[in-house]
Amino acid sequence: MPKKKVKMGIAGIGAMGQGHVQAFTANPDSEIVAICDQSKEWIEHCKKEWGIRYAFTDWEDLVTCDAVEAVAVCLPTVFHDPVTIGALDNGKHVLCEKPMAMSTEKAQAMADAAQRSGKVLMISYNQRFGPDIQYMKKYRVSVSPARNSVRRQIELLRRLREQKR
Ligand SMILES: NC(=O)c1ccc[n+]([C@@H]2O[C@H](COP(=O)([O-])OP(=O)(O)OC[C@H]3O[C@@H](n4cnc5c(N)ncnc54)[C@H](O)[C@@H]3O)[C@@H](O)[C@H]2O)c1
Predict the structure, then answer these.
(1) 148 lies in some domain
(2) 130 alpha carbon to ligand 1 midpoint, in Å?
(3) Does 107 lie in the same domain as 87?
(4) What is the CATH number of the domain that holds 58?
């Protein structure tokens, strides 16, 4: 039986939002059902161009849309906490762009919302999954006595450069 695709809503179609659209379109496990941006003209253009079912100018419409299962929050950072909490409280999973929020209190409120909703909240620390960071992590774990020293970091960079040659 084919795997069910996660139905995505993307909030904010700026630089990062367009990257998320590309990534979720390319991923066989997801489909984009809704997008949102404050510019009516822009969002209508994107809807038509990408063949997306719903386009909103108000993020509250996105987080309450029944067709959406998970929201990617790609809005300016001041909106990360209200949109994330709104989405979680409406039963959606959330992938939120970094930085998480404007303050630790707001970040904590987001984490609390995830806990009470039982939904997944992930912050998009995407660099952690790149081969360079994975390599550095592995190397640090396996030979670590002076792992935080400047000398160790220089040594790591030298080894990485050698590997790339
Ligand atoms: N650009 C980067 O390289 C980068 C890298 C990592 C993280 N981020 C983070 O991603 C987030 C978005 O950054 P960006 O560079 O894509 O910004 P951007 O300005 O390019 O895009 C933001 C979009 O949100 C829309 N928007 C703003 N207020 C809105 C509202 N109230 N309702 C609906 N839409 C609204 C804007 O019209 C715009 O299209 C930020 O938190 C940023 O820190 C950006």
Answers:
(1) yes
(2) 22
(3) yes
(4) 3.40.50.720
Distance in angstroms (rounded) separating the CA atoms of residues 59 and 45:
17
Q: Which atom of ligand 1 is nearest to the CA of 75?
A: 24
39, 57, 74, best to mutate for ligand 1 pocket (most atoms within 8 Å of CB): 74
Domain count of the fold of the chain: 2
Residue 104 shares a structural domain with residue 149: no
- Do 103 and 38 lie in one domain? The reply is yes
- Ligand 1 mean position, distance from CA 153 (Å): 32
Question: Which pTM was predicted?
Answer: 0.87
Structural domain boundaries, residue 38: 6-124
- Residues 114-135 pLDDT 10s: 999 999 999 999 988 888 888 8
Q: In Å, what is the CA distance from 78 to each residue of 82, 107, 141, 156?
A: 8, 11, 36, 36
Q: Which residues line ligand 1 (CB under 6 A)?
A: 12-17, 36-39, 59, 74-77, 79, 97-98
DSSP 3-state helix, strand, coil percentages of the chain (rounded to 5)? 50, 15, 30
